[in-house]
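Why do we care about 3D structure at all? Because function follows from shape, and shape follows, mostly, from sequence. That is the central idea of this module. The next example makes it concrete: a single protein chain, its amino acid sequence, and then its structure expressed as tokens.
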Amino acid sequence: MAKKKNKKLKELILYIVGKSQDDNSFDALKLCLILYLIDFEAYALWGKSVTGAKYIKSPHGPEPKGMSTIIDELVKEGKLKLKKRRKKNRIAVSQ
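And the structure:
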């Protein structure tokens, strides 16, 4: 069951990253917030989240549990790229 949830989460991550290519302020923090808002809204409307992910409290806001592992998997699969930003020690995410 976890693989199915991760598959949905991975697909949504790739979709959001693809749609955010022109956003210079897009980074991993914004990605986590967008994922949270999508799942929160879906839960409010339909009683279940889109991804099935559980969210944890992090210093910068909610993030899906295991997010770093999922991002690492997408990077290893060649579907995602990470770039370290100079400002605020943030990671930029792109396809």
